[in-house]
Write a structure and sequence with these properties.
Blueprint: E1 3-7, E2 13-16, E3 20-24, E4 42-50, E5 55-61, E6 65-72, E7 74-79, E8 84-88, E9 91-96, E10 101-106, E11 114-121, E12 131-136, E13 146-151, E14 159-160, E15 166-172, E16 177-181, E17 188-195, E18 197-200, E19 203-206, E20 210-214, E21 218-223, E22 228-235
Parallel strand pairs: 13-14
Antiparallel strand pairs: 1-20, 2-3, 3-4, 4-11, 5-10, 6-9, 6-11, 7-8, 7-10, 9-12, 13-15, 15-22, 16-21, 17-20, 17-22, 18-19, 18-21
């Protein structure tokens, strides 16, 4: 039996810290909704806006897979493993926090903001050795197709994490249709629409809407406008 959970963009939690504006699809920090704790092992989906010259000071994480997807601007990352990097649109960043790391993230530009997605996935292994990875993908590879950006497998396209999850990005022309087949039985799919408009099956989505789907082996995505961008996240539903 197919089940869906719909999260309209305007229904998300919102935090305004001045230098940071963040929309929370799921409960996070001071935003708490018992109906929106997670979607399976997908526990955080934050849509962040960081003002020029500002950022997150050094802070700790443990036993979480943390994925960052930059949308606009440049974000500087530093961590306790000795990494200092810049991530920008087209990059995918992943940290396996494992037994514990600290890191900071700053917008080093003095004139433009940074927009990025911060996503947390609960891992299937605890207390692993912390790990950092960052790759640059070709955006043209997702034109009218779904480009894999994350999987459980080190040898596959994209980054990898300690979980049976697969993420894809797509950018479609109006009218383009894609069918996504799940990689693992029992998983669910969470669709997050970055731009444009889309029908998932018969369900309409607008910019920044989210739709979780379980109980099906495949889903159909149809762009209803040009430059429709979508993030498709397949995740286990059992914590």
């Amino acid at each position: 039996m197919v089940n869906t959970v719909y999260h309209q963009a305007a229904s998300r939690g919102f935090a305004d810290h001045g230098w940071l504006k963040s929309n929370h699809t799921f409960s996070f920090a001071n935003y708490y909704d018992p109906e929106r704790l997670n979607f399976g092992v997908l526990s955080v989906l934050n849509d962040d806006f960081v003002e020029a010259g500002m950022g997150f000071g050094t802070h700790p994480h443990s036993n979480m897979e943390i994925i960052s997807i930059p949308l606009e601007g440049d974000l500087e990352h530093k961590d306790s493993m000795g990494n200092t990097t810049i991530i920008r649109n087209g990059d995918i960043q992943v940290m396996s926090a494992g037994k514990g790391i600290t890191h900071s993230e700053y917008n080093r530009n003095e004139d433009i903001p940074v927009k990025f997605l911060q996503i947390w996935v609960i891992p299937n292994k605890k207390n692993v050795t912390p790990r950092y990875d960052q790759i640059t993908l070709a955006p043209e590879e997702r034109h009218n197709r779904l480009q894999q950006i994350l999987s459980p497998n080190q040898d596959d396209e994209g980054v990898w994490i300690h979980q049976d999850a697969w993420f894809h990005l797509g950018k479609f022309n109006q009218g383009h249709q894609e069918t996504y087949s799940l990689k693992k039985q029992g998983n669910g799919v969470y669709i997050f629409l970055l731009t444009g408009s889309m029908e998932v099956g018969d369900f309409p989505l607008s910019k920044r809407d989210g739709l979780g789907i379980t109980g099906t082996a495949e889903i159909t995505l149809k762009a209803m406008a040009d430059n429709t961008e979508v993030l498709v996240m397949e995740v286990p539903m059992t914590l």
